[in-house]
# Entry
Amino acid sequence: MSALAHFAFFTNVPGSKHSDRWALLAFLALALSVRFYTIDWSPIWYDEAFSIRIAHEAPTQILAIAGKDVHPPLYYLILHYWMHWFGDSVASVRSLGALADTGALLFCLKLLSLVSTSRASCIAALLLALFPFSVGASHEARMYPLLGLWLMAATVVLVCWNEMPERKRYPLMYVLLMSMAFYTHYFAALCVLTHWLFWLQMQARQKTGISLQGWLKVNVAIVLLFLPWGPFLLGQLAINPDFGWIPPLSLESALELNRTLSFGSAMANNASLWQQWPAAVVVFCAVVVVLKDRSESRYSWLLVGYIFVPVIALMLLALFKPVIVYRYFYFAAMAIPLIVAVALDAYWRRRRMLVTVVLLAVVLHEIHSLYAMTRTPPGEARLDLLAANLQTQVQLGDEIVVDSMFYYLPLSYYLKAQSAPTIYIGRFTTKIWGYPKYGAWALIPQPVELNVRDDEALMHLAAKRVWWITKKSKAEDISFISQRWKRQLTLEGGRMEARLYIEE
# Structure
């Protein structure tokens, strides 16, 4: 049987094998086209630049540096070899996430083929291919699509294991996939919580073939496989990571999260109430899916729990510590198109016109959100343009000073090794968390002092020309530190600018 046939989502339909392959190819073509279209349109930002910078290190160094940050190392290791084969251009580094996201979508369809009908799978295929939240995540060189791939694959394996408990390969596959998920991001624990709740309700109704002993064994195995990273995790917790950049939970942020998860785009920063209608549709569909599920397995609880358990858990956690970051919800959001598809399929026979209208409205909303993602947000930091302009003006012996680590890493990516910038850490800036050896500072060549500039160092610069990289709105620069510098030229890059100062 071909690889495509394993993803059959036209079940119980005469002559479906041939049509299924064409439908799957059409889905892949649409999904890949949407994800690779303008994949390099937006500039590399801080988190992506961090990923690329650490992935350039040797594997042993990646492990050491990741241990001084807040994430586990698997994504960086995979990206390391990916860049070795395909380079570190914007399109190359982001294509890893785009392909991982597409793989996650395939497992979404496989999951639905196991628990629902072919019609629901077709609806889900269309919604998944255009899902803005998924497309947005695939346009960043970060670990979230990879996490989504592991967790959705593990969920498919869990369903197969429940249906065929005698097959020994399923618990082994589940252990390996969940272990990789934990080595990709710690929020894999939220999916574990979802799986536990699903297994407990199945066990309570005595409708699962997964015994208590078998379930405990696989979970213990996952823990044992993760133990080698345990000392690094304890070290990360000991350095008290800074979450001050995450805004606290508020009504506005909750509404914006609902809009973004429910077929919206994080690029359209408008959380008005009328834009909450897709969220209302999702909640209604979730209720429909649960109430209309009369099957013994009750996989509707797994579908609905896949999104709502992580969201509720993080919302509760956010009452005590800020954790509401949209990309943290990526893996869970993949269930939203599945829930809507199953609910629409349930009403298809009796309310065909209504289902068509709702589906059309959701698809049009997705397309509108995708269009919003192609528009340049006002005031965006275009460090790619700034770096291109800067490279035409920089002379040998010039000093380039960036007044924030947040912009230092992306600018360093675009400048490459041609004109290595330094970082300002004086009184007119706020050093981001970790100085001098944790977080992003662990990426700075040692000793760090050679690559940073405080006020005293700027007073005694040997360079005669200094490029000061800062936001347009920020007045403080080297001229506030020493009167011997005269501003001669300004280069622009969105909300950023490079100010050339000449020594008088």
